[in-house]
Write a structure and sequence with these properties.
InterPro entries: MT_TRM10-typ_sf
Number of strands: 6
Number of helices: 9
Biased composition (Acidic residues): 173-184
Order of helices and strands: HEHEHEHHEEHEHHH
Strand content: 5-15%
Largest sheet: 6 strands, parallel
Radius of gyration: 20 Å
Shape: globular
Region (Disordered): 168-200
CATH architecture: 3-Layer(aba) Sandwich
CATH topology: Alpha/beta knot
CATH class: Alpha Beta
């Protein structure tokens, strides 16, 4: 039975999904864009790559379980996103300055490594079906989400040219911060953490030797392995990234959470939410100012805390996999 509150909530979510679609169309249509910045095109969006290149089981039942598990993680994240469309952000940290609601920019989410078109279609359909349980009018994936059979290597190769153009834009702007880009204040704020500029792709792995710097701007391209199994399999994401010569880093849990092990293998939907929120926090001037001027971990800590709390709500019986080592 559907209550009036449920109907109202569904209407809001439908409106949010429509707004996402309209925003995406505007991003891809130069005639509707009012920005003249070289960062205004869709290629400048943050990118989350979900790597399904670990393969799918041949046995039909087990393969279906994995497809359903991946779709569940992805749809959890997308439903969370719709709830947070155009949430108020503080546009300035100047005292008594008027705060305005500015729209969040969604990261492009690209699922890569589907072994064939059938797997791709099943994963798309299951994700849509899951979203329909919350928004009954859902018939397609949001426009910023793509599921594909291309390999991780092909995806990174396709992203290389836009990232090179972005670096050139930064060089042309002289790094003076005059660009309209939300993160133009610095393109190397995570140099100490990853040894490269933030356009360098980073593969998140709980087994990585080093963690990202929580007080710095997060990388623009994040890769998350779709290792959704009944048992935790240590080192698989790290080893895969090393084979592909991709930098690996952990979430900096050890610097913000005393009761969570630094190598805790968090669920994919938890990492997705936390990563998106970390980017959103960094685009907020008050968070950005605190992180740059004071070396604060606040932007990451808030995002990770929120994501872990939501994860615990979904999995109250086993919110964490590792008991904190003394």
């Amino acid at each position: 039975m559907t209550t009036d509150d449920d109907s109202s909530e569904e209407i809001k979510l439908v409106q949010n999904l429509n707004a996402i679609s309209l925003a995406s169309s505007a991003d891809n249509n130069p005639s509707t864009s009012t920005s003249t910045s070289c960062f205004a095109d869709n290629n400048d969006r943050r990118v989350i790559i979900l790597d399904a290149g670990y393969g799918f089981p041949r046995e039909k039942k087990v393969r279906k379980e994995k497809i359903n598990a991946i779709a569940s993680q992805l749809s959890n994240f997308l439903i969370w996103q719709t709830h947070h469309h155009q949430q108020p952000q503080k546009e300035t940290d100047i005292p008594n300055e008027k705060e305005t609601a500015i729209p969040h920019q969604y990261a492009n989410v690209r699922v890569v490594g589907c072994s064939d078109e059938n797997i791709k279609t099943l994963l798309e359909n299951r994700t849509i079906d899951n979203m329909k349980k919350v928004v009954s009018s859902t018939s397609v994936l949001p426009p910023h989400v793509t599921i594909t059979c291309e390999t991780l290597e092909q995806c990174l190769e396709n992203l290389a040219e836009p990232m090179q153009r972005r670096r050139q834009c930064l060089n042309d702007d002289g790094g003076d911060g005059d660009s309209d880009d939300e993160n133009a204040i610095s393109d190397t704020t995570n140099d100490e953490a990853i040894g490269h500029d933030i356009s360098t792709p980073v593969y998140l792995s709980p087994d990585a030797d080093e963690s990202l710097k929580p007080s710095s701007e997060p990388p623009r391209i994040i890769i998350i392995g779709l290792l959704i199994d009944r048992r935790v399999q240590p080192n698989r994401s790290r080893d895969r990234a090393n084979i592909l010569n991709i930098i690996t880093r952990r979430w900096p849990l050890e610097e913000c959470f005393k009761d969570i092990d630094a190598c805790e293998p968090l669920n994919v939907d938890c990492i997705l939410e936390g990563t998106q929120q970390w980017w959103w926090n960094w685009s907020c001037s008050s968070f950005k100012s605190a992180n740059i001027n004071k070396g604060s971990n606040e932007a990451f800590a808030q995002a990770a805390t929120q994501a872990i709390e939501h994860h615990a709500e979904r999995h109250p019986s086993r919110p964490l996999h590792i008991t904190k080592r003394p």
